[in-house]
Write a structure and sequence with these properties.
428 residues, alpha+beta, Nucleotidyltransferase, domain 5, 6-stranded mixed β-sheet, 26 strands, globular
């Protein structure tokens, strides 16, 4: 029997199979002549033919007929079913699945997910609130947090979710869920795409949003520019046009200034829910919106697999009777049922790199390169140089080669890149 975890979030479903492999798939669907494509491939076609593109079907998961149904798609549940099928296949067809689900889903939507699973080839073992699972993983070893409250922030494609949780006698329980509708990842990206397009118009009289191809090119490039803005206050945006290649400087503060109204709405909701003594945590998705957290408060940014590992660690509490399935909203925060082979802390392999007195987590993969005389590290791909986890060992690609040409690393090794060095360490 093989167990997989799927964290539902349309800005990027986070999935883990029984081999420990993790991937992320955005909640997009695209109709083709042959069927339905989902995930990254659908997202990268979404502006080329908008009438065939869908990205609201998870937020609006229901069985109501679409305004323009086809013989392939009758309602949003059909699109969700196709994406679940694609995720199931990419996970190597696990026999059992635990779903981590945001608190925004109502009873009817949970029933639809169970119905879609029943129509597939896998068995659902349980459903858990994704914020509860993520915070449980974050605070599983911290007994001092007993009696405290947590505020968890998560970004979906079209909305933002604040979840309040309380920990008493080792049990973490969800107490409240608040949604800021129509302010999500896509809403900020639309603002920022328009801002960048206006700069291209002003400087070159070139509007990348004037054609479907230009719009798609801009949106495909936007995540890379935003990733660079997590490291620097400015980046260079380059776009191709029929007249040639254009480039200009994109400034983070300018983008944020164009989203002031949305940021203030988030801040207003946050202030109404958070107290001074609360522990503030946010999903890794907040990094997809550089500068936003600084406008709100200082958050602990969770690892991308926090909800996945929280579900795995507490699987025995989440597993339920098939006839009485419900969303688990509380977990014992002091226990861990994760197998020893999947917990890096229990093994003698590196968990972090130490560079200039800063410990940086390796996770599943940590990319690095030399930039302006210093090394920079990120979980997102900035080069082909990487340190990565595979089969409970850590390897390095220190050249621009395929991962098959990997070199195993040991605790305490020092890696030198030109004049810079970092050390492999283990943090408990």
């Amino acid at each position: 029997m093989s167990l997989a975890i799927i964290e539902i979030n349309d800005s990027g479903h986070c999935c883990r199979n029984d081999m420990g492999e993790i991937f992320i798939s955005p909640g997009y669907a695209f109709l083709t002549n042959d069927g339905i494509e989902t995930g990254d491939i659908a997202m990268k076609k979404s502006f080329l033919s908008p009438q065939r593109s869908f990205n609201q079907f998870w937020r609006q998961l229901n069985l109501s007929p679409l305004s323009h149904p086809t013989n392939k798609v009758r309602h949003n549940a059909d699109l969700a079913f196709q994406q679940l099928t694609d995720l199931y296949n990419k996970l190597n067809k696990p026999s059992e699945i635990i779903f981590a689900i945001p608190g925004t889903f109502d009873r009817e939507q949970l029933s639809i997910i169970l119905g879609l699973a029943k129509a597939s080839s896998f068995k659902v073992l349980g459903l858990v609130d994704s914020a509860v699972a993520a915070v449980c993983h974050f605070g599983s070893k911290d007994k001092a947090s007993d009696g405290k409250c947590f505020v968890h922030l998560d970004i979906q494609l079209h909305q933002t979710v604040f979840t309040r949780l309380q920990k008493n006698q080792g049990t973490l329980k969800r107490t409240c869920v608040d949604i800021v509708t129509d302010i999500g990842l896509r809403n900020f990206y639309d603002d920022w795409a328009r801002n960048i397009a206006d700069k291209f118009i002003k400087e070159y009289r070139f509007d990348p949003l004037h054609t479907a191809e230009g719009e798609q090119q801009l949106y495909n490039s936007l995540p890379k520019w935003i990733e660079e803005l997590n490291l620097n206050s400015e980046t260079i945006a380059i776009l191709d046009s029929p007249q040639g290649t254009y480039q200009l400087v994109v400034n983070l503060e300018e983008l944020l200034a164009g989203s002031t109204k949305k940021i203030n709405q988030l801040k207003k909701k946050f202030i109404s829910k958070a107290e001074n003594s609360d522990v503030l945590v946010a999903s890794h998705r907040l990094l997809l919106l550089p500068g936003i957290s600084e406008k709100l408060a200082k958050f602990h940014i969770l690892k991308k697999e926090a909800a996945v590992f929280g579900s795995l660690e507490n699987s025995q509490e989440i597993i339920q009777d098939q006839q009485n399935m419900h969303l688990v909203i509380s977990l014992n925060n002091l226990t861990s049922n994760i197998p020893e082979t999947t917990n890096l802390i229990l093994t003698k392999i590196p968990t972090h790199v130490l560079y200039k007195h800063e410990a940086i987590e390796i996770g599943n993969v940590l990319y690095f390169d030399l930039y302006q005389g210093s090394l920079r590290f990120t979980q997102s791909q900035i080069s082909k140089k990487s340190i990565f986890l595979m089969e409970n060992n850590v390897y390095i690609n220190d050249e621009d080669k395929d991962q098959k040409e990997k070199v195993k690393l040991n605790l305490g090794e020092v890696i030198t890149v030109e004049s810079e060095s970092f050390e492999l360490i283990r943090v408990i």
